[in-house]
Amino acid sequence: MARFLHIPVGHVAKTVFLRTADGYALAVLPANRRVDMVRAGQCLGKGKAELADEAEMEQVFQDCECGAMPPFGSIYHLPTVVDESLARDESIVFEAQCHEKAIRMAYRDFEAIEHPRTGSFTVDA
Fold first, then answer.
1. Cys-Cys link to 27, which of 12, 16, 19, 79 (CB 3.0-4.6 A)?
2. Distance between terminal CA atoms of the chain?
3. Distance (Å, rounded) from C-alpha 35 to C-alpha 28?
4. Backbone phi, then psi, for 48, in 5-degree steps?
5. Closest CA to 74 of 11, 20, 43, 28
6. Alpha-carbon gap, residue 17 to 84, rounded angstroms
7. What fold is seen in the domain 2-118?
8. Per-residue pLDDT tens for 42-59?
9. Helix, strand or coil for residue 71?
10. What does the domain layout of the chain look like in residue ranges?
11. Which parts of the chain sit beneath pLDDT 50?
12. Cα–Cα distance list, 40 to 65, 79, 99, 118 (Å)
């Protein structure tokens, strides 16, 4: 997506579906980073987190192509945590429930709509 849109890959937000002891959550981070599961769980206040599997993803995100979840956990009654490195950006770009469409919005607008937790939970990919 970054190549097609001619933007740095670090400016693209990816959404990762996590499983915690209390249920599911979304982690939103720059596409060129990966989730540190222990730190993500701590940011969510859930202890440890792990990747949810594809079957779980399809069950929760029935209106999305597999792997194209939007960064709005509140729509699905899920907590959302955003990596602080992404929260410093003026805008974010993310997939719009399919792999062929993207949305760019001001980060402050995303934050006003979603009210995500923010924390440091990523490492270099």
1. 16
2. 17
3. 9
4. -110, 150
5. 28
6. 18
7. YbaK protein (3.90.960)
8. 999 988 899 999 999 999
9. coil
10. 2-118
11. none
12. 24, 12, 25, 10
